[in-house]
Design brief:
Strand content: 5-15%
Strand order of the largest sheet: 4-11-10-9-8-7-6-5
CATH topology: TIM Barrel
Low-confidence stretches: none
Shape: globular
Structural class: alpha/beta
CATH architecture: Alpha-Beta Barrel
CATH class: Alpha Beta
Number of helices: 16
CATH superfamily: Aldolase class I
Number of domains: 1
Number of strands: 12
Mean pLDDT: 94
Length: 364
């Protein structure tokens, strides 16, 4: 896939909608469906969007908003904005010949971080070695403890600074778009029973072996948030796997407040799930998230134009956040709290891409 300069991307993509439109044009239908679809009826997938749309932002005026601070930290690492690149596995290698390498480079170039999945191509070493900043390794369990020790040793040796264990994929969701298209997609190598049999005590052992911070990804209840912290989680990561696992689950943004309350400051809280706009990020931060992950949007940007398009996507999210905060009368993320959002009516039909009306008009 030819690479374009950042300046060229600035001209080509003036909005996130154009990035998604370009990705749809470039991706074969089965790859678009693999990235964009969800489990079974896709109810959880649509709820992620619906719950975000059902929150309104409050506005205050006559506040000096000439300077706006979007910085935050994650496990002590400064981030230029509260948006990180969520773990996306095998799709990266399907959409781009360099797989996770442009993802890692784009994250560091925009002064944020990326979660690099067990399943990435050309491999976890290549992704970390492509950048000068330590990234975060995300683990899927494919075999027993000997195999886990080996891959954790590889991740630690090459420089990953934290371990993220995904815990909401005990069974692989029935992603019917993949099934119907007969796409050559499978849940990963190895025996799936190892992932299915993982327990809280395994997380304790993994953290001890990795000798670094532990992020538990896939928390969807206050009860499990407390258990995660009790078992050593430094970060509780609210996620429903982008609606790709449990159908008819709750939206991530809906779960977020109860998790924040349950954690009670004992760990940092992250969230992903349907995040497609800068205003989505602001809502999540207001409800207690430290930072917010983008997955589908990352995949669309990678397909649209590789590293420059991912950088532009992150830049556009920053522009949207800065604009919204300026209009709200907010000058820093630290000022955001639940008082800045209210339950409200949903303005229209909800779909995978309903945050992008210009794009959807071109599909009609």
């Amino acid at each position: 896939m030819p690479q374009e300069s950042g300046a060229a991307m600035d001209q080509q993509f003036q909005s996130l909608q154009e990035i998604v439109h370009t990705a749809r044009q470039k991706l074969p239908r089965e790859l678009w469906d693999h990235l964009s679809g969800g489990a079974d009826s896709e109810t959880t997938l649509r709820r992620n969007r619906l719950a975000l749309d059902a929150l309104a932002l409050r506005q205050r005026v006559l506040v000096n908003v000439a300077d706006i601070d979007l910085t935050t930290t994650l496990l002590g690492q400064p981030l230029a904005t509260p948006v990180f690149l969520a773990p996306v596995g095998g799709f990266l290698g399907m959409a781009h010949p360099e797989g996770a390498v442009p993802v890692a480079r784009a994250a560091v170039a925009r002064r944020t971080t990326a979660f690099i999945s067990t399943a990435v191509k050309p491999g976890i070493e290549a992704a970390q070695q492509a950048v000068s900043e330590p990234l975060i390794f995300q683990l899927y369990v494919r075999s027993g403890r000997e195999w886990i020790e080996e891959i954790l040793d590889r991740a630690r040796t090459v420089g990953y600074r934290a371990l993220c264990v995904t815990v909401d994929r005990a069974w692989y969701g029935r992603r019917e778009r993949d099934l119907i298209s007969r796409a050559n997609v499978r849940e990963g190598f190895g025996d799936p029973r190892y992932q299915a049999s993982m327990t809280w005590n395994d997380l304790v052992w993994m953290k001890q072996h990795m000798k670094g911070p532990l992020i538990v990804k896939g928390i969807a209840s206050a009860e499990d948030a407390r258990l995660a912290v009790d078992h050593g989680a430094d970060v509780v990561y609210v996620s429903n796997h982008g609606g790709r696992q449990l159908d008819h689950g709750q939206a991530s943004i809906e779960v977020l407040p109860e998790v924040v309350e349950a954690v009670a400051g004992r760990a940092e809280v992250l969230v992903d799930g349907g995040i497609l706009r800068g205003t989505d990020v602001i809502k999540a931060i207001a409800l207690g998230a430290r930072a917010v992950g983008v997955g589908k949007l990352l995949g669309w940007a990678l397909a649209a134009g590789g590293q420059p398009a991912i950088e532009r996507m992150l830049e556009l999210l920053e522009i949207e956040m800065r604009t919204a905060m300026g209009l709200m009368g907010v000058t820093s993320l630290s000022q955001l709290n639940p008082s800045w959002v209210r339950a409200s009516m949903v303005a229209g039909p909800v779909s995978i891409t309903s945050a992008y009306p210009w794009y959807e008009e071109r599909l009609r």
